Every structure is written in structure tokens, then in C-alpha cells.
Structure prediction request, 448 residues.
Amino acid sequence: MNIFKKTINFGNKGVHPAEMKLTSGKAIKDIPLPRRVEISLCQSLGKPAKAVVAVGDHVDRFALIGEAQGPVSTNVHTPISGIVKSIGKIETADGHGAEGIIIEASDADHASDLQSICDATPRVNDINKLSREDILNAIRNAGIVGMGGATFPTATKLAPPPSSPYCEYLLINGAECEPYLTCDDAIMREMSVEIITGIELMLRALGEDVKCIVGIEDNKPQAISQMTIAARNHSRISIVAMRTRYPQGGEKMLTKALVNREIASGQLPISQGVIIHNVSTALAVYYAVVWGVPLVERVMTISGTDFVASGNYRVPIGTSVKELIEQLGNVPETTIKIVNGGTMMGRAIGGLQGSTTKGMSGLLMLNTNETQIRETTPCVRCGKCVEVCPMGLEPYLIARLAELSRKEDLKAHHVLDCMECGCCSYSCMAGRRLVDWIKVGKAIARKN
Prediction:
């Protein structure tokens, strides 16, 4: 195993907002299995899964309830046993709604589920006996998607088409550069051996010549230490400390930092011989292949300066957001904004609505000091947004073109390359809503 002693970074772009890692160092706590779940069938970037159960059916814990519809869709499973109460439109955190399945457990179902947790045993004792197909099938069947937020199906990414360049590097994103979020830090501290095993399984699926580099920002010394110890006997896995800088976890930034390769506009990491996965995804791969457990829960950060129960929690997917927060102590009266995800790339939500999903990494309750809304004034042409943009764009200009609906000019200025990281809005002296307008510009550019 190679350990890089020197801290590296992706360059001089980006920003370093106040970290606000209020839950750093806090142990992962389990949220009890709910008696009722509302599970969205839209759990990936692609098409929603198709329900394979009917109203009135009894389903067991971990049963398949939604079948993937294509390579960018994903299977959906239930975290609890119970009766299917309804199939149809359910409320979601983003307010848009989605097709989903509601399941309710009886007393007997709930007792059986709790006992099954106690009785669980590994399904695979020697991963060296598994073939590439065994691993990919287990990952695909388990419905694993990218858990850093992108929700791209993991098995699809691990099996690029034959026409793609050969994969040389598997990069594992442990940067967690978003303020507040510490769920990845927590699993690296507490479950480093399991994560490394998950990485080893992905390497076996990719090929014998592929090397892995795990990038972790240097504000997570315990995670770096634990991952280093866990990887010490793995010659193909290196642990790398990266300078803390947002948005280090972006795929182009991570590729530049770890292997010094640049991904061209419109290209994917595989164009540079790179495949990228998140540490939470690697952990899910371990449980899917070794234990036969589908992706029915995830660790997420629930935080806020005034929230008394801020911490890292293992939460069953489909848990009601409202019930989740009420279990922990209710929303503080000082909260003026609730965010799904992190403060830089997360989305504000209208309230405690919807249920948890595979891609929900955090839930933040922010007061006025944590989310100050500045008055918007005319652009002063300071150039700060250009200086910090990690994609080398001109945010001030793209935002103005979006206001004017100038489709061709938006394309010419590479609006679709924007990763919506928020560095421009964060740095704007005039308080302009640059990212919001750029999102509008992207929608305009995509119109036929």
C-alpha cells in the first residue's frame, strides 16, 4: 500500500467556507425501524423503478418492490416487512412528488424484523472466490447507486462499454467538502475495514491492473488514520490526504487532485481512464456482496447550530422526514431554512415533508446566522466569481445571458459545464443569485 505523505489539491480555484462540522467525531446512532415507510420509486438519475408488488401484498424485509427500468434506473427494496397499503403518488422532500409505495408493519412483522437483525450472518466468507459477474450482479440486484448525491447506478458505472478507454484508476471520494456534513467521515472512522473490503470488491469487478486511490481531506485526521490502517495489506489501494478546499469532491476536481488528469468539457471520468465512487457507495457494496443486504438504509448527517440532537444517524430509506426529526427533538424555533443535503449544493425544502431516499446525505436546520440572505445589488465587476469557479466559467456573464434567455450564447459560454457548486454565489460581493440564474440558463440551453 502506498501512502502519500504530502497533502495535495486540485488547484487554486474553489472556496473554503466555514466548515461547521458540528457533528465531527460523533458516533453513528441507529434510527429504529419505522412501522410505516413511504418509498419513492425514483431513486436514481434514470427512469423510476416499476412496482412489482400490488396493494394488499405482504412483503418481507429486503424484498424487491420496484424493478429497474434500464441501465440508469435502479432496483428498490423495502427496509421493513408489512402490507402494501398503496402504490401511487407520494410526497417528496423536494415538493415535486413521485411514484412510490407505502408499506405498514403489524406488531408481528415488526418483531420479526427486529429478530432478523439480531440473527443476521454473512452470506460470503471468501470474496476471492467471487467472479466479476457475481459481484456486478450482487451490486445491481441490491439497487446500489452513487451515494454522494449523483445517484448513478453503481453496477452500470463499474461496467463501462467496451468502446470506453480502459479503466486505470478507481478513485474513491472521501473528501466530504460540504459544510456541516460528516456522515462519510463517520463511516470512515467506524467502518473502515468494511469500506476497504467494498473497494476491494469493486477492484475485482474492474480488473487486476486497476489501482485505487482514496482521497480524504486533511480536516479528517481520524478517518485518514483508520482508513490507512484498514488498507495496510492492500497493495492496490492508496490513501491520500487532500488539502481542505471546496468543491474538492467534484469528479473533475478529484481527478485533477489525485491523478493530475483533466476531464474535457462534456466528457466523463472514464475518458481519462478513471471511475469515481463515494465511500458510502463502497460501504453499500460491501453489505450487498458479503451480507446480501440491498440498499435499504444509509448514514446521514442531521445538524444545525440550534438542533439539540445534531449527529450522524443510520436511517432506513423511506422513513418519514417529519417523524425522523420528531424522534430526535423537533425543529428549533429559530430555524428559518431546512436544507436537504449540504449548504452549498443542497436544496431548501418547504418543511418536514416526504421521506428519506438513497441520495439524502443530510438534513440541516439553519438559523439566521447560518443562512443570511443578502440584499442583491448590481454587479460590481469584481471578477471574484470567475476567480473561484472550479470549471473556469464566467458566472456573472452566464447568469446575465440566462436572464435574457439567450440560448445560443449560453451554449457558447459552456453553461452546461456548470456543476452548480455555488462557489460563485458564495463569493459574490453583490449578493447575486448566480447559481439560481445559471440553473435557469441550463434549462434554456437544453430546450429543443
